[in-house]
Design brief:
Length: about 180
């Protein structure tokens, strides 16, 4: 009797398991190994680099701004300026359309207003709410001493993300955008 009961329970578990596996959501893999073709490459290759602003003297003794590449062990101090360069390379044979590059402003940094440089067809917008929404000119509401509320441009310290939008990146071309932040 015990053997029949155990066989019945075992068969029930097997049926439930088979039913569960056949009803897995799309995207779940039931096989044990998945390999991708090494020939398949991503169409957009992204590279982010950072440089620190340094002042050097030119031949006439005038101070000039130069940029020093940062390595993994770079030390930055409050007040120093960093320049980030985001490079997007379209490695495919077709144009890429409607591409957004979203970049967070790192903790401990403040975006340097109007420091972004980008090609003419690229549009820029900013977020002051952690990347949930983006606008061209962020504003905040400020309560004045008399109690009135006034809308003012958001201070640089409020910026949390920068978005560069490109309507098209032609095949086999590279797009570069830069922006600066200051160490708090």
């Amino acid at each position: 009797m015990k053997q029949i009961l155990m066989t019945g329970i075992g068969a029930s578990i097997l049926l439930i398991t088979a039913s569960f596996i056949s009803n897995l959501p799309d995207g779940w893999q039931t096989n044990s190994a998945v390999a991708q073709s090494p020939e398949k490459q991503q169409a957009l290759k992204l590279v982010l680099t950072a440089e620190k602003q340094v002042l050097i003297n030119d031949e006439q003794g005038k101070q000039k701004i130069a940029w020093q590449a940062l390595n993994n062990k770079a030390i930055v101090k409050p007040g120093e300026i960093l320049r980030y360069t985001l490079t997007g390379e379209n490695t495919s044979d077709r144009p890429l359309k409607n591409i957004n590059f979203n970049q967070p402003v790192a903790k401990g940094m403040v975006y340097v207003l109007k420091s972004a440089h980008f090609p003419g067809d690229v549009k820029i917008s900013y977020s002051i709410d952690g990347g949930r929404s983006f606008v061209t000119n962020p504003t905040i509401k400020v309560t004045l001493p008399n109690g009135n509320i006034q809308t003012q441009p958001a201070p640089a310290s409020a910026y949390t993300h920068i978005r560069f939008y490109s309507p098209v990146i032609p095949a086999k071309t590279t797009l570069k955008v830069t922006y600066q932040t200051q160490v708090r």
